[in-house]
Design brief:
32% helix, globular, alpha+beta
């Protein structure tokens, strides 16, 4: 997969990205909101990248794709993972690059490709109630607020907001 936007390239992981995956995972927002996506060592990042590379040809995912600047620098990822209700979209931009609209640009570009690949008509975005930045990304991408409530999130009961994006 290769998706190009004005500023970004969404591609597939390769071994050259292991160090950047490690470094991108260490920021405070990642630790706070998605601690299972923090890779404390290069070896942990290598194991994650190796696993994720095997999922591209599967039908069940997770489908995690690096987000690169046109210069080739890995600044984060966008993903689709199966949940009980269907599929959930996720994204992370490394702290150094936040506030530039990269998540919105990546999600908007990823959705049509994802819908075709998975043959789906809806996808959810789920985030902690305190993650206002993620809520704004989902809203800017056309997701509609669907539910607020206590759910098991990262293996703990947490207050979450769930959004839904549907094809018309």
């Amino acid at each position: 997969m290769k998706i190009e936007t004005e500023r970004l390239v969404i591609s597939e992981f390769d071994d050259s990205m292991i160090e950047s995956v490690h470094l991108n995972s260490l920021d405070e927002d990642n630790r706070r909101f998605v601690p299972d996506e923090v890779f404390e060592t290069i070896e942990e990042a290598r194991e994650a990248v190796e696993f994720l590379k095997t999922r591209y040809e599967s039908s069940e995912g997770p489908f995690v794709h690096p987000i690169l600047l046109h210069s080739g620098e890995n600044i984060g990822h966008v993903q689709a993972v199966q949940i009980e209700e269907g599929w959930e979209i996720g994204y992370h931009i490394a702290e150094t690059y936040t506030g530039n609209g990269y998540s919105v640009e990546a999600v908007k570009a990823f959705l049509p490709v994802l819908f075709k690949k998975l043959d789906i008509t809806k996808i959810y975005g789920i985030c902690l109630a305190e993650n206002v930045a993620s809520q704004k990304v989902l809203e800017k991408c056309g997701f509609e607020f669907d539910h607020k409530g206590m759910e098991n999130y990262q293996n703990k009961p947490r207050l979450v907001y769930r959004y839904k994006y549907s094809l018309s």
